[in-house]
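Practice set, problem 2.
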Amino acid sequence: MMFKYLIGTLSHVLTYGGAKIGDQPSILGYSDADYANDINKRRSTTRWVFRLWNSTISWKSSLQHVVALSTTEAEYIALLEAFKEAMWLKGLVSELLGLEVKANLLCDNQSAIHLYKNQAHHEKTKHIDVRLHFIREMIENKYVFLSKVAGENNAADIFTKAVPLTKLQHYLKILQLGQAGN
């Protein structure tokens, strides 16, 4: 399956450009996780991808360091990792360009998004470690903005699971990953 994917995407390349002079730089990120998909250790996988000026500039797919006890926790851990990347990219771009940069992060899991808003601990989420509430502080201070994205438009899904060709093409278009020479 992996080789079929690799052979089918050999001619795909990152495409940069499209920003016009005077365009305000904007970072857009997509975050996703699978839940306990690692069959040996039952760890979830964090995946995120970031774009700047409509060009894909950063992405990651890695096993989480802890075993998540719920889908919400797995998604929240992925959000934490994506938030840290957003903060780093925001600082880098601001330093290089001397401009304040807006960062938006999209997630397709409503429970994870709701968790940062809800200050009360519930029995079902009490196990989520305090360090994960870093997200709340980043949003409250408006360092990064978090929004819901429909699952079919979450570009991080390209790293999360095997997808049919039509979905793969849709995600490649979102990320502006085109074929060489086009």
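Problem 2, part (b): a different protein.
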Amino acid sequence: MPAIRLDRFLADSARRLPDKVALVCGDRRLTYAELDAAADRLASTFAARGAGRGERVVILAENGWEVAVAVFAAAKAGAVASVVNPTTKAEKLGFILRNCGAAALLTQARLLPVAEAALADAPRLACRIVAGATAPAGWLTLDAALAPGAPAPARPGITLDLALLTYTSGSTGVPKGVMMTHANVDAAASSIIEYLGLREDDVILSALPLAFDYGLYQLLVSVRCGATLVQEISFAFPQAVLAKLAQERATCFPLVPTMAAMLLQMRDLAPGAFPHLRMITNTAAALPPAHIARLQALFPATRIFSMYGLTECKRCTYLPPEELARRPGSVGIAIPGTEAWVVREDGSRAAAEEVGELVIRGPHVMQGYWEDAAATARALRPGPYPWERVLHTGDLFRADADGFLYFVGRKDDIIKTRGEKVSPKEVETVLHALPGVREAVVVGVPDAVQGAALKAVVVLAPDATLTARDVIRHCAERLEEVMVPRLVEFRADLPKTETGKVSRRLVAEGA
């Protein structure tokens, strides 16, 4: 079957299942026909206001129906959607708007101060839309943007056009925009649907951020196969999410390790309480084998999929549930239609049980990083055949004798915490801006709930009287929540290399 565009995901399901509920967000329920019509109207507004084919549409909003409509509207207009975490601060948002040359920004009323503060970095931004408020000067309300207008473009583009631009932390501390075409997105979504066995009658309940690609793909695969997505704002109140899981009779529940750990800490969760739940999926980081065993005891009739992925190709591997007992520490094999293997430093294939870098080959691999040729060249390198480039993940893996893969660690300094990647350099830049801080290094320390907790190791200037609370408050005012250190340690000095640089490895060992 040939690849299809993201806008076709919705148009095809709306044509086939017009009256079926596509999306549940709080009390709001949208059928496929309603979601499709809303996306058409917003696409018309995008196109009329300069955000047409090839232009970038940035979406700064918490989980909700508005994000879903905007993502599909961008595709229908021929534009490229970029969903940004709602806790993003103005400086980083400004960088994203400037870097991608955004033509449109859609946000919410409570995020207007951040959005407006970032606009100085977005001279091309002609289309500004705000949901849930009277629009200030220069802005259009979402209600007005959803009013009937000219039809959306009849032919918005082809599958080789960019569909998504997802900004992810880089080892240099500067966010990198991962470029995914419609063909890339369709390949990833179709493969996920195949190995999970997703169906039209499935109900996916997701409390993952739509700005997180694992969360966004819950929307995309659901619409692609005609299922129903129940979208929660967050997992901050697990009891309420579980009540919704029962109320909607959800059949699929995507998790990250942090959420799994919170579930396992709940004392009143009875085994077998959700007989309708067909599958639990996990990615972002591998679940500890002990957590897998406890989850299976709590959900005895549920298939548990342990998976591994990264933004640069969406999903890399999955462990068939029947292998869980035999290989509880594995993240499995390559997803359908792709290949994955481990290489040595010289690029040759590693032997069984030998640790090396994971390489991914397939139609789901990104096109590169937006306007960052050097980073693209490091990640996408010549493959086994002369016509291709394959993705070097930067992650260390080993494979057993049967080819099942096991995550070992990261080659670079990026820290995975709460299922998301954090650049320590980005946090350190903020720490060094705090008066009284002389030196600072951010490391990840093992944490049963977060996977890795961010720890700031700080050296104060003479006579400085900062406390851990001062450091955390300073970071919270300037960084996204996931990037705020949870722990602070003060030291008299930091270990150095022979060249005088701070040794991150020795700091981490001491932490």
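Answer key, part (b): The CA atoms of residues 210 and 216 lie 4 Å apart. The radius of gyration is 23 Å.
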